[in-house]
Amino acid sequence: MISINQLEHDLRSLGIQEGETLLVQSSLRAVGPIAGGPATLLKALQRVLGEQGTVVAYTATPENSNTSRLSLAPTDGMTDQQKQAYWDSRPPFDPDTTPTSRILGHFSEVLRQTPGARRSHHPQTSFAAIGRLAAELTDGHPLESHLGETSPIGRLYAGRARALLIGVPVWCCTALHLAEYRQPDPPIQTYSCVLPNGSWQSFDAVHLRDEHFEPMTGVLSEMASLRRGRLGAADCFVMDIADGVDVADKFLRDNALFHS
Predict the structure, then answer these.
(1) Which has fewest Cβ within 10 Å: 71, 87, 126, 233?
(2) How far apart are CA 119 and CA 117, in angstroms?
């Protein structure tokens, strides 16, 4: 079993610094068995970052929608009447109690449930944070800015925060989606979700996609500020969010991928 002391040692070896703000994305399976599980990883991060540091995680709920691929999958094969009954039965999003999507792993959910954590109120793309800047990063998260300039991602970019990717490829960093908002005339789609009051709300926002990020692996890996190392058995990256988003922005423009 991997101890908290070993995790702290590995985090410091990765260059994690006291007082910084860190967006954490993790595959705990890649790390190996941790004594105490993801709560121990969070505690190790808090010890290394200290009282002035902040830990952030993506606590999205894409299932709270009738427009995302993930939310539509359960309705395959249903009649129109069955689909309507399914959507009518969807529970409203509650930032205090709605669990993080299972696709994001255990660490995000543990952080969300930790006493003192704050969570943004976006019903599809929320973030949770704990530490000195938790409220500043999560207060106010407009519907139309899933991962945009006025979302927690925009604030992480402005604050020169870094991302710690544990057992996760560098191109999977959620913060890179900010680059999509910065493209000329980004494509727009209609989203729909259940608000805390139980009502369905439709709104227009940038059409977010994932498939154009993996081709960026090469240019992201060449960033001078990118650090590599290991946490337990997991290969890790520590990425300056602003550098990564700027590289992604240029890559999308140079390769005309965003509108293809």
Answers:
(1) 233
(2) 7
